[in-house]
Each structure stands twice: as C-alpha cells, then as structure tokens.
Write a sequence for this structure.
C-alpha cells in the first residue's frame, strides 16, 4: 500500500530540535569536558617523544595520534577507540524511549509527519553532534601540536588526518545506531544504556578472549599440515573483525601509519623484493577500504533494524 | 445534510486472536460533539489511533475529512488535532517552545507560528505561563496547552482521549466550558471517556462501547428514553415484605431493582405520590424517598448488566 506525502517531511525540524537539546544538555557539558581532557592529555603526554622524532620521520605529525606513552597511557587513536562509543551511547540510549516515557510520542506523531522523519531526524542530530565534537577535538589536538612542535603539518598528513576523522565519525555512527536500536527496543532508558554498555564492554575488553577461545574450536591446527596454521590465523582474524573496535583500530593504523602495508598475515615470500617505505595515501585508502565499508555497513544495518522495529511499534504507551 | 466528517465502515483491529475493535460503523457529522463511552479496554483508544492513521486497521475503511488515514495520513493529521490520554510535553522547554516545535512540524513559518501561538494561548488563558518551563505545569495546564496546540494548528476536528482524566472538579468544569466554546466555533469534536456525567452535559450524541463493538448509539435523551423506558428514577428506602411486587403493580413503573437497602424504581413520570401510597397500602414503612432524572450512568449500568466482566 502506498502512502502519500514525503516520508522525510519534518525530519529537518526534528533534527534541529534534537540538536538544540543535545547541545544544551548537561550531558553534553560533561562530554565536552571529557573530550577536552583527552585532547590535552594526549598532546602533553606524547609531545616529548614526538619532538625527539622530528627530522627522522616524514610523518612526524601523525605520531601525535599514534604514540603510546609506555604501558600506562594508550595512544590518542586507541583512546578514541574507547571514548567514541561512550559518547555515542550517551547521545543515543534514550532518544526514542524518552518520547514514550514523557508521553510525547503520540502527540508528536499526530502532527503531519511520518515516523520515518522522527527516527531519521534523531539519528542525524546525534551524528551531527558527534561529528561537531570530533571535529572540535581534532582541530584542538592539531592546533596544540602546531604550537608545541612549531611545525605545520604537511599536505599528506592533513589528508591522512582527515581520513582518520571521517573514519572515527563512521565508528561513532555505528555505536550511535546501536544505542538507538536499544532505545527503540527497550522502554526503560536505563535498560537501554546498560545493554549498550554491555555490548561495548564485550567488544572493547572481552572480544579478544572470545576470539582466542573460539578460533581453535572452529579451525583446529593440524600438526601434520602446516597450511592449517594459516587457516587458523585467518579464521581468528575474521572473527576479530566482527568487532567494530577491530575495524576502527585497523583503519587508524593504516591511515596514521603510512608504513602499514598489510593488515593481515604476510608471508616472507610475499615480502621478497618489496621496497620498504611509506605507502602513498591512495594505497592506504585501498588497504582499509573493506574496513571502512564494514563500519558503514554496520551503521546502515543497525539503523535499518531500529527503523523496522520502530515502524512496527504500537504508539500507545 | 452535509457530508459526514468522520465515517468508518466495518473497521476492525485484531491483536492476535483478540478483537480490540470489531466491525465498527460510525458516522460523525460536522460541528457535532460525539462521545465514545465505555470501560477501559473497550477499544476506544484503538479506534482513535486508527482514525489518525497511527495504527493500521486489520480490515475495514475509515474516512476522516475526506481522506483515508491509512494512505493519506499527513492530510488527515493536518486537519485533526489530537489530545492523547495522558498528554505529555517536553518538560525542559517552555509552553511556547513546545508549541513552536509543533508549529514547525505543521509547516508554519515562524512569524505565522508566533501569531497563532499567541492567539491560542490567550484563548486557554496560558499567555503568562507560556513563558515558563512545562515542568512546573499542573495537570490542568497541560491539558489546556494541548487544546492550545489543537487551536494553533487550525484543526477542524479535535479528537480528545479521556480529556478530563485526573482533573479536579474545578478544572473539569473549566475544561468542559472550553469544549463548549470550541463547539461554538464549529469544530467537530470526538471525545472518549468513562466519565459519563461529564459526557452527558457536552455531547450531542454518544456511542456506548463494549468489547470493541458499539452497543448503543444516539442522542443522550433518546438513549434515556429507549433504554430505560422512562426518564425518572426514584430511590426509596422502606421496610416491609413483598414491596417489590406491590410496586411493580403501580401504573407507570417500568422496573424495580434492589440495591442493598435501597429500592431503585424506574418510572415514566414523577409518580412519587402513587409509590408512597402503594407502600403504605402494602403495610410497609417508608423511610426515605429521592427522585431524580435518569442519567447516562443508569443507561450504562443497564446496558452493561447483561455483559459479563465488561466494566
């Protein structure tokens, strides 16, 4: 049955309203503080080591993002891997169920808009907030680094940095879509938040263990067949790539470390005759294309599930 | 007679095997105040949601203001103002900001919206409170803000679901006054309620709902006459044996029922004298007598008598 009228009429209005709510909320102030501390912390912690590398590395600027301070402090990129999901979950976990709990849902849906507009507007508002925040953080870190190093970043460094920024927004989008999915499926905001955090914990801390346990079961090593070792490693890698965190980590690695030539297993025979040195930007992009596509597919897939569930939900509370 | 504004034909909604609304035929004329009455869970809200296109009917058709709510929900929702049961607003925004959001969803320019909002808030006496956050509003103020939203939208049909639920008597009276003034403006109003007295005073026509079906429909006076066979109810307290039989022989009495110590007599007219004589004649002592007009409550009680676990 065809419905008449645009499905997205009113989406812009919903988005602007939600964006206003997001940006003026106390939650946002806290997240901003977190972001500011992260950025400043990352730069101050790594700047000494980065300064020492000036003159040795043509991509010294990117080191700001990737240098880890010994065992204690992870690199800025790794830190974002933890932080972005938290921010995205904070923005999305109560977006739909709060309308039900505040009894505003049926009143808003009685206005001349479709449900599509409401969900889409809310998602876009969350994504925009996330993007604004990550852009601010990115500019803040780069600016601080310019001041402290006294060097401007080169053209390719800027390109790689931007690609990293876009990948981190896509990564945030996946977590935002997950949080919204839970906000559609659970009426209680606390349950939705806990469910989102449980998934985040699983991927951030426990996924490696899961992979370690599952791999030998799915692909046992046959001691008489050396190729089976290869197979086992490949299965393990495929499993670990189910996690958006792995996808993001591999993406940042390829973008921020131009020396990265492969994200999988490389045999010595394949390396024969290779000239060591950084890859051009376009080759790095080609290298992580599957990872970036995977992240985007996660966003679209999760949003679609949330969308279908929301369309089928009864409006009455 | 003009074209009806709301019409449903065999409208049905099933949740699994349970029929929430069962082959509903309803016609509402322009400018009418129509009451949907029935116990909770009788299918009133489901009917309303189907009229707004917020729930898909299992079968049957509806027509609201000349549009099909299923296929042209935006056109329907542009013309219909809806006040849900337990209406909610965004607590962190002011009354005006809440209405401004709705106005933008309706597609008004901001200048047009501000004019409409000011006018609507003045009408429901919320002009000053409109500048405060909704978090501090009382239940009655929220209800009035919901009416302001309907006025601001310029809706020609208002659908109010349990509009007086949880209101104190004073707010209820004010609210009914507001409904009457909307009717004067020519708005068609469909309201659902289980508060019968209230509905009796504002509705032109009512439909009694039970288990998804309309049991009775018509003007309040007609229902009183047809269902009760008379519009007088006399309550007495008397002692003595065999009083019921004696009372039933009194001309004009249509029915006698016992409710604890009280005998409830339905009659075609005010025949208190005859009743008193009958009791005394039967050797009983009359201790109390009270006469009143029959109300919808009586119709309702009679109607749902035969239906198990309806109320």
């Amino acid at each position: 049955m065809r419905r008449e009228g645009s499905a997205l009429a009113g989406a812009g209005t919903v988005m602007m309203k939600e964006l206003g709510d997001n940006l003026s909320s106390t939650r946002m102030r806290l997240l901003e503080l977190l972001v500011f501390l992260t950025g400043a912390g990352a730069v101050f912690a790594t700047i000494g080591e980065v300064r020492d590398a000036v003159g040795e590395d043509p991509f010294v600027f990117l080191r700001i993002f990737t240098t880890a301070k010994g065992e204690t402090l992870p690199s800025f990129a790794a830190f974002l891997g933890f932080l972005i999901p938290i921010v995205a979950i904070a923005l999305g976990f109560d977006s739909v169920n709060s309308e039900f709990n505040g009894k505003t849902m049926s009143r808003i849906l009685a206005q001349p808009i479709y449900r599509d507009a409401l969900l889409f507007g809310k998602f876009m508002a969350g994504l925009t907030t996330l993007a604004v925040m990550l852009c601010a953080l990115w500019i803040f870190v780069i600016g601080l680094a310019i001041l402290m190093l006294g060097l401007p970043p080169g053209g390719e460094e800027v390109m790689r940095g931007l690609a990293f920024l876009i990948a981190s927004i896509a990564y945030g989008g996946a977590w935002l879509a997950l949080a919204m999915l839970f906000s559609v499926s659970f009426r209680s905001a606390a349950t939705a938040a806990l469910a989102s955090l449980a998934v985040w914990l699983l991927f951030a801390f426990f996924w490696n263990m899961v992979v370690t346990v599952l791999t030998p079961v799915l692909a046992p090593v046959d001691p008489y067949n050396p190729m089976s070792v290869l197979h086992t490693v490949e299965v393990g890698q495929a499993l670990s790539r189910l996690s958006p965190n792995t996808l993001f980590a591999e993406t940042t690695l390829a973008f921020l470390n131009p020396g990265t030539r492969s994200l999988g297993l490389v045999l010595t025979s394949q390396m024969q005759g290779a000239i060591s040195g950084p890859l051009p930007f376009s080759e790095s992009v080609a290298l992580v294309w599957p990872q970036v596509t995977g992240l985007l597919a996660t966003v679209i897939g999760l949003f679609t599930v949330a969308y279908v569930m929301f369309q089928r939900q009864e409006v009455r509370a | 007679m003009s074209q009806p504004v709301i019409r449903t034909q065999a409208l049905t909604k099933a949740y699994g095997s349970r029929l929430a609304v069962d082959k509903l035929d309803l016609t509402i004329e322009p400018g009418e105040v129509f009451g949907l009455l029935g116990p909770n869970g009788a299918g009133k809200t489901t009917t309303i949601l189907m009229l707004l296109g917020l729930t898909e009917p299992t079968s049957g058709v509806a027509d609201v203001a000349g549009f099909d709510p299923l296929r042209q929900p935006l056109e329907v929702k542009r013309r219909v103002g809806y006040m849900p049961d337990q209406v909610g607003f965004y607590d962190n925004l002011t009354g005006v900001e809440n209405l401004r959001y709705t106005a933008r969803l309706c597609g008004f320019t901001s200048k047009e919206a501000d004019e409409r909002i000011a006018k609507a808030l003045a009408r429901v006496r919320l002009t000053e409170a409109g500048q405060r956050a909704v978090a501090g509003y009382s239940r009655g103020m929220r209800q009035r803000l919901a009416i302001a939203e309907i006025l601001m939208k310029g809706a020609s049909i208002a659908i109010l679901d349990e509009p007086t639920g949880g209101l104190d008597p004073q707010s209820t009276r004010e609210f009914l006054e507001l409904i009457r003034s909307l009717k004067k403006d020519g708005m068609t109003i469909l309201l659902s309620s289980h508060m019968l007295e209230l509905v009796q005073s504002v509705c032109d026509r009512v439909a009694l709902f039970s288990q998804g079906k309309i049991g009775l429909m018509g003007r309040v006076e007609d229902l009183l006459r047809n269902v009760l066979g008379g519009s007088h109810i006399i309550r007495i307290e008397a002692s003595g044996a065999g009083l019921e039989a004696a009372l039933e022989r009194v001309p004009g009495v249509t029915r006698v029922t016992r409710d604890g110590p009280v005998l409830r007599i339905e009659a075609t007219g005010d025949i208190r004298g005859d009743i008193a004589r009958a009791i005394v004649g039967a050797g009983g002592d009359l201790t109390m007598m009270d006469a009143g007009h029959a109300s919808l409550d009586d119709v309702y009680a009679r109607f749902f008598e035969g239906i198990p676990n309806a109320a």
